[in-house]
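debug: dumping io for the single-chain case to check the tokenizer round-trip. Nothing else runs in this session.
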Amino acid sequence: MTHAHHPETPAEASIILPMPPQAPRAGTRAWERRVATWVLRAGGWRMRGALPDLPKAVLIAAPHSSNWDGIWIYFAATAMGLDISILGKEVLFKIPVLNFVLRRYGGIPAVAAVGDTMFDQTVRLLLQSDRCWVGIAPEGTRKQVARWRIGFWKIASAADVPIVPVYLHYPDKVIGVMPVFHTSGNMQADIAQLRESYRPWQGKHHGI
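debug: decoded output
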């Protein structure tokens, strides 16, 4: 059964959440974390919930309705010192300056090879890493969709790692971390349950 969630006000939240011992840490400097925290505070954003003490996970973020979503998630992760790996198109990493920025902040090139898909590479990354959180937007687009893409579920299931659901609630400017979700053998039921848990949250332009 899915429990109802109620939107929190900024007063109930903190600027950033504490980092648990096993979560992957980014190689950010103290000044970078301070600047990111300042940007969140200046933008009126707060965080809610708790980061789970997990070495490996698939982090999903929704609702995804604006390019700003990734920017606020980036500042939140940087402020906490959390390392979130995101696979991107290999061509982007061939641009010198962009290559540095992407790799510096969690980007990993998806190397195109016959018979080796991005799904395969992501699962392999999780299996071969001691600590790794992979970030995925389950909607796959900024438009409101009737169905989520199933890749995040298949990756979490294949790598045998839990899912960390994160939401962005624009009316109260809250970035929240919901309880860890463990996949079962029923993909459709799992995704339906996860989507239902996002119902109270409103993105910049739409909800779930």
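debug: round-trip ok. Confidence is low (pLDDT under 50) at residues 1-12.
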